[in-house]
Write a structure and sequence with these properties.
alpha+beta, 6 strands, Beta Polymerase, domain 2, six-stranded mixed sheet, about 140 residues, about 40% helix
Length: about 140
């Protein structure tokens, strides 16, 4: 639940300044491709990207959501995403959350937010339904 609070509180203080200075992304942006490849490399499942650019209330331009079958796999995926984005895009996350419990790790790159969840948490929180107005695309092998 901390992750939902983080997303709703992002548009205050420092994050609003950072958001306005960040460039707008597209589906073909290097960071998005890098994130998806990093998830696939660690066998993340049911990968989907949500294009939130046309939703005024959205806290980011894109969400990338995936599942992992275990807590160690959540850690492996999340750490690989951070490593590959740093290596290939030279970007560090603005914030990350959930490494302690490993039920849902959120990695916030300001205009793209990565969600790595256990299947039961994904079903419970239903992020795709919350943002059902967004265009979605599957990224499974």
């Amino acid at each position: 639940m901390e992750q939902l609070a983080l997303l709703t509180n992002r548009n205050t203080k420092d994050s609003s300044d950072k958001r306005t200075s960040a460039k707008r992304l597209t589906r073909n942006s290097k960071i998005i491709k890098t994130i998806i490849a990093a998830i696939q490399e660690k066998k993340g499942q049911n990968i989907i990207s949500l294009d939130l650019r046309k939703i005024n209330e959205a806290v980011a331009d894109f969400f990338i959501i995936c599942e992992a079958g275990s807590q160690p796999q959540i850690r492996a995926i999340a750490e690989n995403v951070e490593h590959k984005v740093k290596e290939k895009c030279e970007e560090s996350p603005y914030h990350h959350e959930g490494y302690h419990n490993l039920h849902w790790v959120l990695i916030d790159y300001v205009n793209v937010v990565v969600h790595v969840l256990l299947p039961e948490n994904r079903k419970f929180y239903r992020l795709e339904e919350m943002w059902s107005d967004a265009a979605s695309q599957e990224h499974n092998d």
